[in-house]
Amino acid sequence: MKLEKITDKPESRSKRQYDDACATAHALDLVGERWALLVMRELMLGPKRFSDLRESLPGISANVLTQRLEGLEAAGILVRRKLPPPAAAQVYELTEWGYESEPIFQAMGRWAARSPSHDPTLPFSTASLVLSMRTMFDAKRAAGSDARIGFRIGEETFVARVADGRIEIVRASLDQADVIFAGAPPMLAAAIYGGQPLEMLEQAGALTIEGDRSLAQRFVSLFPLPPKASKRA
User: What is the pLDDT of residue 15?
Assistant: First the structure.
């Protein structure tokens, strides 16, 4: 028996939509435009101003960013709000439903990290670094750990709490951190994922470490990358 349509197709529907009832297709209708997912990625750690988003996405134009923000807002994925004085700036923030998308980024990140053509030398934002650590964290390697790891990245500070085989990373003061890493995201990634010796990065002035150095060494070993996929069937 042929199913009948329960609603008429709106005349204003974009021609770029898939017109497919599959929820995966609808997800692509919502976030499939170029840059949309990366805008969401940058908001995963909290609200940002328009200028902050442009800075963390150097390849996007102001016009395209405006379009993506408007589209994500219309879809209910983010909202605009104005900060109270003295800031009084407009920021963009994910809705509760928008934040629920983090597992999508984790699944895509784990899958794409196996790509033989992945280039880790390309630009890498603070949000990319934090989300990657949440994604690649190995609970077995962290067994028995109970530590607070601080990060100073530009003007931002984060603390990672490693305990009970879990990792939580939030914006926070570094006062209680057992060890503090300071550097740009690509340099931190070089230590965590690239196997670059901490001493070498320090000598090059790319990274500084304060506090428990043995803990620093152990921490960067908690994020093993998956093996690269074979190009053969």
Answer: 54
CA 102 to chain centre: 8
Q: Which residues pair with 207 in a beta bridge?
A: 183
CATH class of 106-219: alpha beta
Range 23-100: architecture per CATH: Orthogonal Bundle (1.10)
Computed on alpha carbons and rounded to an integer, the radius of gyration of the chain in Å comes to 20
At residue 40, the 3 state secondary structure works out as helix
* 18: alpha, beta or left? (left if phi > 0; alpha if psi -120 to 50): alpha
pTM: 0.89
Q: Side-chain half-sphere of 29: how many Cα atoms within 13 Å? A: 16
Q: What pLDDT does 3 receive?
A: 52
Domain ranges in the chain with CATH number 3.30.1050.10 = 106-219
CA distance 42 to 57: 8
Cite the beta strand spans of 154-225 per DSSP E.
156-163, 166-171, 179-183, 207-211
The 10s digit of each residue's pLDDT in 7-64 is 444 444 455 788 899 999 999 999 999 999 999 999 999 999 999 999 999 999 999 9
